[in-house]
Design a protein that fits this description.
alpha+beta; Pnp Oxidase, Chain A; seven-stranded antiparallel beta sheet; three-stranded antiparallel beta sheet; 5 helices; about 35% strand
């Protein structure tokens, strides 16, 4: 037995987030042409390619304005930093998701210290285990096509610089994901962390 759910129904949106899970969180810092900084988490975030190194995140349209501050900033200054979202900073990550008036600096709201990036204008989260400086390659706007849908914009960025804290490098000089302890997004208000890790070599046929 199974249930078929209408993909355009209100109930499906919440269920979809639980099915496509867990998801890494893109903690994106951006800056407007006027120099106003924004920091916000996006749960639809991932890597696209390691060479060239590219990432993407999806920004859904808000209910209180025509577009979120992040996408508005990136249209003005096509650069951003993807800061590693870790369990240790979960309270600040959650607070930076609050709906606040345009112009509020989430670094100040959360009490996080910023650090200047090397090649892009938006600042980095200094306490994050790693930071990816990115320049925007393309913004793909996905207009709503059914009742209840909102505009969504997919931002694709090329990684132009990487910063990793020494504490999260292993003896081989590789990033230690377990030690960094990423915060993962599930459905609703549910989050997760890394559970059991498995080594499964690729089969040779």
């Amino acid at each position: 037995m199974y249930q078929e759910i209408n993909a355009s129904s209100t109930a499906f949106a919440s269920m979809f987030n639980s099915i496509v899970a867990p998801r890494p969180i893109g903690w994106i810092s951006s800056i407007s042409a006027a120099g106003v900084v924004n920091l916000a988490p996006f749960s639809y975030f991932n890597g696209i390619s390691p060479a060239p190194a590219m990432v993407m995140f999806a920004c859904n349209g808000p209910l209180d304005r025509d577009q979120k501050d992040t996408i508005a900033n990136i249209r003005e200054v096509p650069e951003f930093v993807a800061n590693f979202a870790c369990y240790e900073l979960r309270a600040q990550i959650n607070l930076s998701s609050a709906t606040v008036p345009r112009g509020v600096n989430e670094f100040e709201l959360t009490g996080l210290e910023s650090a200047p990036a090397r090649l892009v204008r938006p600042p980095m989260v200094k306490a994050a285990p790693a930071n990816l400086e990115c320049t925007v390659v393309k913004i793909v706007d996905l207009p709503p096509q059914a009742p209840g849908e909102r505009m969504s914009s997919v931002v694709i960025g090329r990684v132009v610089a990487v910063h990793v804290q020494d504490a999260f490098l292993n003896a081989d000089g590789r990033f230690d994901t377990r030690r960094a302890n990423p915060l993962l997004r599930l459905g609703g208000f549910t989050y997760g962390t890394l559970g059991e890790l498995l080594e499964i070599p690729r089969p040779v046929v």
